[in-house]
Specification:
Layout lengths: L7 H20 L1 H28 L3 H49 L3 H21 L2 H30 L1 H9 L7 H40 L4 H11 L6 H15 L2 H27 L7 H40 L8
Helix pairs in contact: 1-2, 1-11, 2-3, 2-5, 2-7, 2-11, 3-9, 6-7, 7-8, 7-10, 7-11, 8-9, 9-10
Length: 341
């Protein structure tokens, strides 16, 4: 299936739609994020369940149960074999990080402007350390943890309920359309589900490739905690465009402990890995996913990230993909009557 490209008018209409969605999210950001995250997870579970149903002929509920059990076992087994390595490297990371910060501060102080910058950073860290000792800070951290866990549970159960019987919810949404348009509404809903499923698959392929390549590169270069940094690099690539910067910063910081040459090697590794991801892996998998213009995706990420932090950054691209598909089908095809693109 070729990548889906969009009519130029869809860009403008999608921008308007995203502004409206943004206003709704501003009024009820947490609720909207949990619903969309639950729907995204449900699409992933439905995609795997459909594969089991189509190839093995199982009933849907048993297929979904098998998928969930397999995922839990996969995570458990992976955690069992990697827990000791991750724990060891996490401890090493906590030991290496202060050394890296000290090394960076010393190198900054070699320059006139660096001494001022190092002093400013020291004051910020001192202020943060004082604030973390207060009871309100601890209470806020505890509340954030509870809120995060509660949100995760809600998202999980929402995804399971949607995945158990997706046709029921598809039917309920389609009934919101006029009777003559309900069949088209079902087609649009199916198109959204297929587009998100392809997007998820593309991200998983990209994340896995980056994790393997980065881990191998870190080991070859000799950067500390290579396995943990490589795993983090793969996870960070869930966020296109901006995600890779999240793994570059700690890797460069740790490499500075071993000298500027090591940091240079890490920078070169970053360029090689992300070039491979951007020019080899993504074009290959993009043939079966929604083609979102890079500038549009990056713009939406910046806006969502500025308004809603990391959660907005993580879900910005699938939000934009959904908006583009809706505009393409409902506005360009149905209203403009343009079916050529």
């Amino acid at each position: 299936m070729p990548s889906q490209r969009f009519h130029p008018w869809a860009m403008f209409a999608a921008a308007v739609m995203l502004l409206v969605v943004g206003l709704l999210m501003w009024l009820a950001a947490n609720t909207v994020f949990m619903i969309f995250a639950g729907a995204l997870l449900a699409v992933f579970l439905c995609g795997l369940t459909d594969l089991v149903v189509n190839y093995l002929g199982w009933r849907r509920r048993w297929a979904l149960a098998a998928v969930c059990l397999t995922l839990v076992l996969a995570v458990t087994v992976t955690g069992w074999f990697t827990a000791s390595t991750l724990a060891e490297q996490a401890q090493q990371f906590s030991q290496e990080l202060p050394k890296a910060m000290k090394s960076l501060r010393q190198r900054l102080e070699e320059y006139p402007w660096g001494g001022w910058l190092a002093e400013e950073i020291k004051q910020v860290r001192s202020s943060a350390a004082d604030s973390e000792k207060t009871l309100s800070r601890a209470a806020g951290a505890a509340a954030a943890v509870v809120e995060t866990l509660t949100g995760a549970v809600v998202i999980l159960f929402l995804a399971l309920f949607l995945a158990i019987n997706p046709e029921l919810y598809k039917h309920l949404v389609a009934r919101l359309a006029p009777p003559a348009r309900r069949e088209r509404a079902r087609e649009v809903i199916d198109g959204l589900g297929n587009s998100l499923w392809r997007w998820i698959l593309a991200r998983l392929v990209s994340m896995s490739a980056v994790a393997v390549a980065a881990t191998a590169g870190f080991y070859l270069i000799g950067v500390p905690v290579a396995f943990m940094l490589g795993l983090f690099a793969g996870l960070a690539n869930f966020i296109p465009n901006l995600g890779p910067l999240f793994w570059l910063a700690p890797a460069m910081l740790l490499a500075l402990v071993q000298g500027p040459a090591q940091a240079l090697y890490v920078g070169l590794l970053f360029m090689v890995v992300q070039t491979m991801e951007g020019y080899v892996i993504t074009p290959m998998v993009q043939q079966r996913m929604v083609h979102l213009p890079p500038a549009a995706g990056l713009t939406v990420q910046i806006i969502f990230g500025a308004l809603w932090g990391f959660a907005g950054l993580a879900l910005a691209t699938p939000f934009a993909a959904v908006a583009m598909v809706l505009i393409q089908k409902l506005y360009v095809e149905d209203i403009l009557g343009d079916h050529e693109i």
